[in-house]
Structures are given as structure tokens and as C-alpha cells.
């Protein structure tokens, strides 16, 4: 009449230990009802529990590579429940031949049958020995001491970690063994949570514990921090030398295998190089083909080599910002010709878009020469032999070179290496020194490029004096600025160095239009940038 109470519930893969504990409650009720039990009921309990264990180990075998830790944790939960129940009256020894001859839980009398069934689902003898010990410990009932601890833990781990015949660590076995030994460490140290005793470095050669935890006297301290201490249990010390030697042997074997691979690969280096180059070309052509499908890109046109150097771009756009801003990007035209206007001096307020404009011209020229479509409504240019830039500001502290020295070094490189077929991009040359010296350096550099090199130049500056160079090269230099709108709000500052004694600064609000238009801007609106940066009012 009580068989229905002993039926093992179906497993759902998530709360199996809880299901097992619920089943134990039913078993307990049966044996409380049957004061002394009878062989038939004991046989039912034995068969059900044996089947339960067999099903569990089958589950472990199927999922051990992905979720072994969860299964071991469930096992440990089951075992702990068994040990907590061992002293209850309903589980005391009865005058029944199926029980052992000592006080204990009912499963104590079926230990061997459980082990025999479990062994049938194991893969090899090594695992059989380890799991047999584990199941025996699971089924052992006593006073809470861990039976066979010394023979099971790290001594059982080492054979799984290392194969001394080929010195190959078995990582999979190490993982399974490590998670199974953690609960035993918890019992030895008195910790209730298994998560408080992690092993380190993925291989359990040391155990890390909170500093307040007491450990057995034969554990050796390795190192410590303010909150934790790492130990070597004695079982580890016996095999640690073998583990370290095996690691060295594995390293040597891996290095030898790598050298052998390189030697074999080297025999076919030429063939692989041709293949890689072919794949690289295919990848490049595929990228260019995808880009050409963009409706806002056009095919650039190149003029013959007998024509003068020129760059004519209509509605050009910065390829990166155009992708980010979409329709909000403001396009600009560029017209440079060696026989006409070959230099543009660009002025305007800070953050107005000057640097973006000259960058987009250089990027469009590069894209055109690699065979790509370009972000513009039309583009016509001649092949360049180089693009030389002087932009940004940075020092070289390792070599003791200041920002200004780095700036002038780059300018010198441009002067020495550019030709009449080059595009020159210079952004605010001379800003790293005083205004007087900066103007002189910028003016002299631009003068040399126009007179000696006759190359195409885009020159950004905040020095109005630079624009005067137009008078020396009429028709070859054009003055431009990025347009803006501003509200008038004059700020008067007393200047003892000025002849007039008063310096008027435009401190009004500014709206950037980002359009490059002819003419020079005599203001940089630095106070506007200071206000945007939340610098205190002057």
C-alpha cells in the first residue's frame, strides 16, 4: 500500500536534489508508519534509490563537458541531506536482515549495489575508481567525518591532471575532479558555502581561503593578501613536482611541434603567399564594389599627365563624417589648379570646420587613386605623387622634443620631400610659439612652397598677416574662410600696450555654417570656445 510513496519523481534537470529530498520525506513517513519495517519495504527503497543514483550518473555522463559543476553540486546537496537525517528515529537500525549491523541510514545497506550499478555507466577504470570513492562517501553514514578524504582528494586529482607517459594535462578531467573536491575542502575548513574556497589558476594546486578560516595543521601556507590566504594541502606537495615537470615537458613539446609546423609550412610558402595576395585583392575589390553602390558616391575622373596639376571637387564630403551625419553634413567645393589658383589660405573661427575641410580633400584624393568611388557630386584630378601633412600637436617626451620642435620637424620634412606633383596640407603652422615668431615661420614656409615647389597647398591659419602673401603671388593664392553667423556683443578690455587703450572683442553667440566661402575672417572667436568649455567669465 505504500509503494506509491516510494516512486522516484521525474528529473527536470534543474531541481533534482530537491526532488530527491522530497522523496526522502516520503520514505521517512513510510518507515515511521512501519515501526520496524519489513524486507519487502527495504527492498523497494533499495531498488528505487539505486535506480535514482544510476539515472543521476547517466545524466552526469551526458552533460559532464558543459555543466559538470551543477551536477556535482546537486550530488553534494543530496549527500548533505542524507547525513542530516541519519540521526532521526525513523532511520534507526531495525531488526531487519536487509539493514547493516550498525546504526545508520537505510542506504548504508545498499552501498555495494549502488556502486555496482554506477560502475556500469563509467568510461574507464580511472574514472571508476574516482566515482566509486565518491559514491561510497555519498552513501557512508557516520558522525560527519569524511571517510577516505586523504585517498580521494588531490591524490585522485593528480592522475587526472597529468599523464606521465606523454606529459599531457587532461583539462577535462581536472575540471570534473576540481569541482567534486571543493565540497570536501569546505567540510575540512568548516565553511558552509562552497564558493568561499575557490582553487586558483584553473588547476587546483592551491586553495584560497578567507584569512579568518582555520585549516588543518599540515596545510602549508603559500602566500597571502589582506583578505585571503592560499594553502597547499599535503596531498598536493607530494605530486606538485611532477605537475611542474609535466608542464615543462608540455612546453617543450609544444615548442617542438610549432617549429615542425613552421618547417612544413615553409615548404609551401610561395604557394600560400600567392593565395593570400589573391584573397587580399579579392577582399579589396569586393569592398570597392560595395562602396560604388552608394548613390551619393561618384566615379572620379583623372586627367592626362600632360595637363597641369589640379583638384576639382564639387560638393565634396568627408567620407567618415558623411556616414555618421548622413544628410546633416555640409558639402564644400574645391578648385585648385597649378596654372591658376594653386593655394587656398583658410581662416575662420575655432570649431568652424577648417581642419575637416582640408582632411576631406586629402581623403577624396587618396580614395580616388586607390580606385574607389568618392563622396562628391563630381571629382576631377590628376594623379598625385604624395600627400604631405602637418596637422595636430604632440610632443616627444622620450627624446626631449617639444611640441613646437616636432611641428617644425614635420614642416622641414615637407619642404625637403614635396614636389610640384604633391598635395600639401598644413594646419596652423607656428602656433607653438609667440605670435610674432609663428607668423614669420608660417609666412616663410608658405612663401617657399609657392615660389620654389609650385605645388598645390591647403593652408589653415589664424594669422591674418599670412593672407598678405596674395600680393606676392597674384592669381595663385586665394583667401577663404568657413562661414558663420554671430550676434554682436562687444567686450571692452583695457590694454596698456595698445595705442588706443581699449581692445574690442566680439563676445557674441556664434552659429557655424561650415561652408567654405571666399574672403578672410579677421576673428577666431576664441572666447566662444572658452565659454563652451565652461571657463569662468573674463
What does this structure look like?
- This protein is α/β, with parallel strands linked by helices.
- The protein folds into 4 domains: 1-142; 148-266, MutS, DNA mismatch repair protein, Chain A, domain 3 (Orthogonal Bundle); 268-296; 299-532, P-loop containing nucleotide triphosphate hydrolases (Rossmann fold, 3-Layer(aba) Sandwich).
- The protein has 14 helices and 19 strands.
- It has helices at residues 16-33, 39-85, 111-119, 125-139, 149-152, 154-161, 171-189, 234-266, 269-292, 319-325, 354-369, 403-417, 435-453, 526-532, and strands spanning 162-163, 168-169, 207-210, 220-224, 228-232, 297-298, 301-302, 310-316, 332-337, 343-347, 374-375, 378-381, 386-390, 422-427, 456-460, 477-486, 490-494, 502-506, 510-518.
- It has a 6-stranded mixed beta sheet with strand order 13-14-15-10-16-19, sandwiched between helices. Strands 7-12-8-9 form a 4-stranded mixed beta sheet, with helices on one face.
- Mean pLDDT is 70; it is low at 1-15, 31-37, 63-72, 85-128, 130-181, 192-203 and 496-503.
- GO terms for molecular function: ATP binding; ATP-dependent DNA damage sensor activity; mismatched DNA binding.
- One of its GO terms (biological process) is mismatch repair.
- This is DNA mismatch repair proteins mutS family domain-containing protein.
- Residues 422-438 form the DNA mismatch repair proteins mutS family domain.
- Keywords: ATP-binding, DNA damage, DNA repair, DNA-binding, Nucleotide-binding.
Amino acid at each position: 500500500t505504500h509503494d506509491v510513496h516510494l516512486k522516484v519523481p521525474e528529473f527536470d534537470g534543474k531541481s533534482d536534489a530537491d526532488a530527491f529530498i522530497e522523496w526522502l520525506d516520503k520514505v521517512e513517513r513510510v518507515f515511521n508508519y512501519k515501526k520496524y519495517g519489513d524486507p519487502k519495504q527495504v527492498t523497494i527503497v533499495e531498488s528505487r534509490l539505486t535506480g535514482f543514483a544510476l539515472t543521476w550518473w547517466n545524466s552526469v555522463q551526458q552533460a559532464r563537458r558543459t555543466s559538470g559543476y551543477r551536477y556535482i553540486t546537486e550530488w553534494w546537496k543530496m549527500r548533505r541531506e542524507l547525513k542530516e537525517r541519519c540521526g532521526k528515529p525513523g532511520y534507526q537500525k531495525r531488526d531487519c536482515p536487509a539493514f547493516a549491523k550498525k546504526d545508520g541510514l537505510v542506504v548504508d545497506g545498499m552501498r555495494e549495489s549502488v556502486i555496482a550499478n554506477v560502475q556500469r555507466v563509467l568510461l574507464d577504470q580511472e574514472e571508476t575508481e574516482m566515482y566509486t570513492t565518491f559514491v561510497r562517501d555519498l552513501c557512508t553514514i557516520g558522525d560527519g567525518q569524511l571517510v577516505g578524504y586523504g585517498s580521494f582528494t588531490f591524490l585522485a586529482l593528480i592522475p587526472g591532471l597529468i599523464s606521465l607517459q606523454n606529459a599531457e594535462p587532461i583539462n577535462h578531467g581536472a575540471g570534473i575532479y576540481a569541482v567534486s573536491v571543493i565540497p570536501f575542502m569546505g567540510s575540512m575548513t568548516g565553511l558552509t558555502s562552497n564558493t568561499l574556497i575557490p582553487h586558483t589558476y584553473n588547476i587546483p594546486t592551491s586553495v584560497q581561503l578567507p584569512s579568518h578560516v582555520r585549516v588543518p595543521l599540515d596545510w602549508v601556507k603559500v602566500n597571502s593578501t589582506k583578505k585571503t590566504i592560499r594553502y597547499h594541502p599535503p596531498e598536493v606537495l607530494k605530486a606538485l613536482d611532477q605537475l611542474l615537470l609535466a608542464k615543462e615537458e608540455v612546453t617543450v613539446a609544444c615548442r617542438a611541434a610549432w617549429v615542425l609546423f613552421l618547417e612544413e609550412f615553409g615548404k609551401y610558402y610561395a604557394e600560400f603567399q600567392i593565395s593570400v595576395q589573391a584573397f587580399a585583392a579579392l577582399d579589396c575589390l569586393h569592398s570597392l564594389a560595395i562602396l560604388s553602390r552608394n548613390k551619393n558616391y561618384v566615379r572620379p575622373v583623372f586627367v592626362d599627365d600632360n595637363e597641369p596639376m589640379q583638384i576639382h571637387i564639387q560638393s565634396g564630403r568627408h567620407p567618415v563624417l558623411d556616414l555618421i551625419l548622413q544628410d546633416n553634413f555640409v558639402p564644400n567645393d574645391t578648385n585648385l589648379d597649378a596654372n591658376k589658383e594653386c593655394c587656398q589660405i583658410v581662416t575662420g573661427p575655432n570649431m568652424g570646420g577648417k581642419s575637416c575641410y582640408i582632411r576631406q580633400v586629402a581623403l577624396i584624393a587618396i580614395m580616388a587613386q586607390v580606385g574607389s568611388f568618392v563622396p562628391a557630386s563630381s571629382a576631377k584630378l590628376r594623379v598625385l605623387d604624395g600627400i604631405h601633412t602637418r596637422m595636430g600637436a604632440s610632443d616627444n617626451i622620450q627624446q626631449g622634443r617639444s611640441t613646437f620642435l616636432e611641428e617644425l620637424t614635420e614642416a622641414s620634412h615637407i619642404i625637403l620631400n614635396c614636389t610640384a606633383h604633391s598635395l600639401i596640407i598644413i594646419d596652423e603652422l607656428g602656433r607653438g610659439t609667440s605670435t610674432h615668431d609663428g607668423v614669420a615661420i608660417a609666412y616663410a614656409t608658405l612663401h617657399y612652397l609657392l615660389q620654389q615647389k609650385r605645388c598645390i597647398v591647403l593652408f589653415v591659419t589664424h594669422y591674418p598677416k599670412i593672407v598678405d602673401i596674395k600680393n606676392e603671388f597674384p592669381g595663385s593664392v586665394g583667401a577663404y574662410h568657413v562661414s558663420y553667423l554671430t550676434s554682436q556683443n562687444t567686450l571692452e578690455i583695457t590694454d596698456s600696450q595698445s595705442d588706443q587703450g581699449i581692445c574690442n572683442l566680439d563676445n557674441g553667440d556664434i552659429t557655424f555654417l561650415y561652408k567654405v566661402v571666399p574672403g578672410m575672417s579677421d576673428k577666431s572667436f576664441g572666447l566662444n570656445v572658452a565659454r563652451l568649455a565652461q571657463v569662468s567669465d573674463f
